[in-house]
Write a structure and sequence with these properties.
By secondary structure, this protein is α+β, with helices and mostly antiparallel strands. It has 19 helices and eleven strands.
């Protein structure tokens, strides 16, 4: 049986992903549609026939290229770029949680009006230090349009913002809140605010910030030292919403449906609604969108009686994200998310098999295999993107990861219990505060070890050290393999 016979849908989804990504290299318009039309003429009968399959693959790649080209041209349009250095009155919507810096508050938003004119454009808002506007707030005030900075100190703000579809920074000198946005965005804001308050009703301070960071992926309330410890220990991925969160949301809805006694079909539909609500609450982070697509496909697969496939779900997650913004292929979050999941699928089982002969408990072997596989595969991305490489990620994850299901289970149970018994919810949240304190302690313990993280300041040293690390890992792997055989 050939690869084409075994994985036809995987290959087709991959060609669509390739077409979307290639739009970053060159744009096409009507030519792409013509290619699609000609190729589809041959798609008659069995799609696994080599000729017809090739034609369909070409059609999907061309369609992805054409669609990606259109999306990129839309994302690259900017009315405010012609008004750099101009000042005036702006009305904008805050579309994400605020990040408080040393001198200013920075938050992503969308301008809705400029000097009485209707303008629709995503921007980065800079606000004076003080109170932060809540997500979804509509603000007005005097501001100046500023161009993002170019490459400096290893960071290119202009390119980073362009990959988010943002081309200017709107710096407010003063602002006031005049309302809140409506529609789907307003629903997402209300879910985000409710969930953030519900899961942390019994904790305050750093524990509350950690709890919100783990469950909602919002690290804005964490101190800089805590963030640095999570980075140095290799545990920063715990502050980005992952598939584990989505799985527990869906599982919680299914368990609740079972306890109430409703049909499984109703439970699966409820799981779809729960996943959609959670994705809305957290926002369009690559990891949560990918996990949301996978979870939704699992429920749809059960409802339709067709088994799902993990690799196919991963590919469709990439299609959804790149279909919205093809430039996400350059986003470190996108790269790390998909690299980590691919490592769990492809590398972790092989590492687990190598550990089978050692006197270690099964759960410890699995923790070592998963953290080792993810650390190995994501190391080059961390190295070349950030010039940093955590060296103690395996012991850090072995210590901290077992607490993650407890944190998420208690958090969602707290949110569900709040409307019924606030006192019980506060007690669960207080207990959860101790669990997140343990995770934070693991990050501080491992992250404060001297040499826990390598940092490169010389850009020429990165490739040399990366090659050296690859050679060392290759030698170690060869030695272990010879000894095992």
């Amino acid at each position: 049986m050939t690869v084409l016979d075994r994985y036809p849908h995987h290959l087709l989804a991959s060609t669509l992903v390739a077409g979307l990504a290639f739009a970053n290299v060159a744009h096409i318009h009507t030519v792409g549609l013509a290619v699609v039309g000609v190729a589809l003429v041959f798609v008659l009968g069995d799609p696994r026939s080599t000729v017809r399959f090739t034609a369909l693959a070409v059609a999907l790649a061309a369609f992805g290229w054409w669609w990606g080209s259109g999306r990129l041209e839309r994302l690259d349009r900017s009315v405010l770029s012609a008004h750099v250095a101009d000042a005036g009155r702006f009305e904008a919507v805050v579309t994400a949680p605020a990040k408080v810096g040393r001198y200013r508050i920075r938050v992503f938003g969308a301008v809705r009006g400029y000097e009485g004119r209707r303008v629709r454009e995503p921007v980065l808002l800079e606000l004076p230090l003080g109170r932060s506007p809540p997500q979804g707030a509509v603000i007005q005030g005097a501001a100046t349009v500023r161009a993002p900075r170019g490459p400096a100190d290893g960071f290119d703000e202009r390119t980073w913002l362009r990959h988010q579809g943002v081309h200017v920074i709107v710096r407010y000198t003063a602002w006031r809140q005049v309302g809140r946005r409506g529609g789907v965005g307003g629903v997402a804001d209300r879910i985000h605010a409710w969930l953030g308050a519900a899961i942390a009703c019994g904790v305050t301070g750093e524990r509350r910030a950690l709890l919100v960071g783990i469950v909602l992926g919002d690290d804005g309330g964490l101190s800089q030292s805590t963030k640095e410890h999570f980075q140095a220990s290799g545990l920063y991925h715990l502050l980005a919403v992952s598939g584990q969160n989505v799985v527990l949301v869906a599982a919680g809805v299914l368990v609740l449906a079972w306890l109430v006694g409703v049909a499984r079909v109703v439970g699966e539909v409820g799981a779809l609604v729960g996943i959609a609500a959670y994705v809305l609450a957290v926002g369009a982070q690559p990891s949560v969108v990918r996990a949301g697509v996978a979870g939704a496909l699992a429920s749809i697969a059960w409802l339709t009686g067709r088994l799902g496939d993990a690799w196919y779900a991963l590919a469709l997650g990439a299609v959804v994200l790149l279909g919205w913004n093809p430039m996400l292929v350059f986003d470190p979050g996108f790269e790390l998310s998909f690299a980590a999941v691919g490592a769990i699928f492809a590398v972790a089982p092989r590492v687990r098999a190598r550990l089978a002969g050692y006197p270690l408990p099964d759960h410890l072997q699995m923790a070592i295999a998963v953290s080792g596989a993810c650390g190995l595969v994501t190391a080059p991305i961390l190295w070349f993107r950030f010039g940093q490489l955590p060296l103690l990620t395996i012991p850090a994850n072995v210590l901290a990861e077992p607490a993650m299901p407890i944190v998420l289970t208690l958090a969602f149970a707290t949110a569900a219990l709040g409307p019924v018994t606030p006192a019980g919810a506060a007690f669960l949240s207080w207990c959860n505060g101790w669990v997140v304190a343990y995770i934070g302690g693991c990050a501080r313990l491992i992250g404060s070890v001297p040499g826990a993280q390598i940092t490169v300041t010389n850009p020429l040293a990165g490739p040399a050290v990366a090659v050296a690390i690859a050679l060392v890992l290759g030698v170690v792997w060869a030695v272990v393999r010879v000894r095992m055989e």
